[in-house]
Amino acid sequence: MMTQLQIGLLVYPDVTQLDVTAPLQVFSMLPNTTVHLLWKTLEPIKDMGGFLISPTTTFDICPQLDVICVPGGGMGQVDMMRDIQVLEFLQTHAQTIKYVTSVCTGSLILAAAGLLQGYKAACHWAFRENLALFDVEVSTERVVIDRTRITGGGVTAGIDFGLVVTAQLCGENTAKFIQLLLEYNPAPPFNAGSPEVAGEELVAMVQKSGSELIAASLEASKQIAQHI
Amino acid sequence: MMTQLQIGLLVYPDVTQLDVTAPLQVFSMLPNTTVHLLWKTLEPIKDMGGFLISPTTTFDICPQLDVICVPGGGMGQVDMMRDIQVLEFLQTHAQTIKYVTSVCTGSLILAAAGLLQGYKAACHWAFRENLALFDVEVSTERVVIDRTRITGGGVTAGIDFGLVVTAQLCGENTAKFIQLLLEYNPAPPFNAGSPEVAGEELVAMVQKSGSELIAASLEASKQIAQHI
Fold first, then answer.
1. ipTM
2. What distance separates the 2 farthest-apart alpha carbons in chain B?
3. Is B104 a catalytic residue?
């Protein structure tokens, strides 16, 4: 009998929809795998856009996991960086898990849980300075594998991340099979997907639109990093 | 006062999660826009992976839309091709809408509603022959704009599609802003995202894994195309 892989994706109020659903789509196609959407309760929660996500498994009954993935979000991500129940849940599972992982600013929640110190990791580009406060070697790569940590860049990196994790767990052929099934042959209509190519004006616009969140995250990062 | 844009994404039992959530993530970031997840009732429905999606707006109370988007799915997509209530809903809104759109095999549902005949359109690569039965000029492009129809390729094309629709509705600068915010700077870990590059063996594996669905869709396409 094949061992069933157990993959958990944390969800929380104000999470970014695609941070969750991009890897969810990839993981839900893995053979012999159960994917959990993990939260404190099973009540549907509102994502950053106001749409509902229904958790499937509570922290209390979560089985031993092979992979845990923490997505980013809006202001809710800052709450998660200070949420003792969430941090302890991550710390407990990290002790027995194959891979501790994140997409986007989820790496800041992992760092706040003390799970990324001394590791190389990725993050949404607008939050790289915040992550660096946690003794993390911040990378600009799309997906970073450093020992048992696998972390992706901002939002849409969740697809690349999902395929990289798939290759680690099930081999390259399974990852390629899923890539073809999902027709992942990207063709961005514009060349504006990273701060290096988007130009100063667009970068400033995005930073301004997210300034409240970036500042709140920076403040939380400074406070928490002192005590780890 | 700015006019509020109204964008509707059809959801249905057995829909493919990312076909919905990739464009949803893009559209939920548009200025002055309301995004609806449309279905017959507000009861949560199960996607192809068994995860819940909560509709936000029923057909009955759906406002006049600027864009409607039909995603693909598992066997549920074949049911939608024959669902009179769904087809009539699409036909009614198509009369007054700016753009009738789809991601993945959603184009087969549009075609079954008689809304793609004589147009050029995209589809998931494994279903191109099916779409061609409907007097559609099937394209291998990632996203196709033909007059008031905008259609995307398989699953992950929903991101490219979302940005193309954004540029049409709100201009290139808004699309680039969202691309940067979502850090859409894709880096597929393998070169296996289209049948042209994946090689015969992988193509055959995916076709085999989806053979039941592809056959059921072909059968429905043959039957329905005769009567349009």
1. 0.96
2. 56
3. yes
| CB neighbour burial string for A91-106, b if at least 16 within 10 angstroms, e if fewer | eebbeebbbbbbbbbb
Secondary structure percentages of chain B, helix, strand, coil, to 5: 45, 20, 40
Q: Answer whether B108's CB lies under 8 Å from B221's CB.
A: yes
DSSP-derived secondary structure letter, B156: T
A153 contacts on B by Cβ (under 8 Å): 183, 185
Q: Which helix (H) or strand (E) holds B165?
A: helix B157-170
From B183, B198, B206, residue closest to A157, measured CB to CB: B183
Interface contact B189-A37, CB threshold 8 A: no
Looking at the complex, does the CB of residue A25 fall below 8 Å from at least one CB of chain B? yes
The residue type of A163 is L
Q: Which domains are delineated in chain A?
A: 5-225 (3.40.50.880)
Q: Characterize B7-39 residue by residue with b for buried, 16 or more Cβ atoms within 10 angstroms of its Cβ, and e for exposed.
A: bbbbbbbbbbbbbbbbbbbbbbbbeebbbbbbb
Under an 8 A CB cutoff, do A195 and B184 touch?
A: no
Q: Model confidence over A67-102: pLDDT tens digits?
A: 999 999 999 999 999 999 999 999 999 999 999 999
Torsion of CA B21, A129, A109, A135, to 10 degrees: 140
Catalytic residues of A: 104
Q: Are strands A149-152 and A99-102 parallel, antiparallel or unpaired?
A: parallel
The pLDDT of residue A15 is above 90: yes
Q: List CB contacts (< 8 A) between B203 and chain A.
A: 180
Minimum distance, in Å, between the CA of residue B95 and any CA atom of chain A? 28
| Per-residue model confidence as pLDDT tens digits over A104-135 | 999 999 999 999 999 999 999 999 999 999 99
Shortest Cα–Cα distance, A211 to chain B (Å): 12
CB proximity under 8 Å: A 128-187 to B? 142-143, 153-157, 159-160, 163-164, 167, 172-173, 175-177, 179-187
Output the pTM of the full model: 0.97
CB A149 within 8 A of CB A121: yes
Which is nearest to A26 in space by CA: B17, B77, B28? Answer: B17
Annotated catalytic residue: which of B62, B69, B104, B123?
B104
| Pairing, β B45-46 against β B52-53 | antiparallel
